[in-house]
Design brief:
This protein is about 45% helix and about 10% strand. By secondary structure, it is an alpha/beta fold. It has a domain of about 130 residues: Potassium Channel Kv1.1, Chain A (2-Layer Sandwich).
Length: about 290
Amino acid sequence: MRANHQPDAPGDPHTEMNGSGAAAAAAAPPKAALAEHVYQAGFLHGQFADVTLSVARFQEFKLHALIVSTSPTLRHLLHASHGPPYRLLLQSSDPRLTQHGLSIALASLYGQDPVSDRHDADSSALLAAAYLLGLHELTHRTYAQMVERVTASTLPRLLHFCIGDGAPDTLDVDYVGPYPGFTDALLRHLAGFISTTLLLEHEQMFHEVLVHLPYPILKHILESPDLQTKGDMARHQLARSIINEREKLRKQKGGALEEVVVLAFGGGGRGSVEIIQRPAGRGKKLWKAR
């Protein structure tokens, strides 16, 4: 019987139970030894499996009905199937799913902690798998870990995770993300990071990111009171430089709408920057009165 893919990161202390491993297990408390046996023999080596799980395009998993029935998704499939043995087919077109992410999520049903010490690259795939399997607590924990680890280096991957390729230009910061109920605040959180930390610490990257964001998100960031600039004129100059780059891309693609930076005055003489979108070709007005 084919063993399941090893889900643990390189250097994981779990080893096959022979030699010193068997001795350590024998000396462990009964519950710990049983848990280790279930994971090693049951999940990693698929011994006495009564479930074959196929998920989309990925390699099959050899599992155990009593254990994986703790997943609401798999429990539903089990109730609808004839067995044992059971052959379960789970369809998904989610591009964020990976074999490794599925392995980590399924291993959690066998008692493994899937979140601790995971690399950032694993988190999006684990969240996708946990969501598919209906593991809400694991989905929440994985999402919380992703948010805690937002940095300049992880930002591009998180933006891609959230909005994917070719996001519509109408997408705004209230977009609920790929997994409604769990990723609802992710895009707004990333926009906040861009407005503050990214601009202060990586201004060139700030420019590069905003040049490619959908218009409503760009507008939200450049008009945000949290944007770390030294006054309205500095904000205006920053916005103009970004809009000029976006205009070059618009002309290459033949877009019908152009973006304009407006310095508005009002409210006690205090100015503010606004980004507006309008049909291309009209004269550019650089200020307006309120």
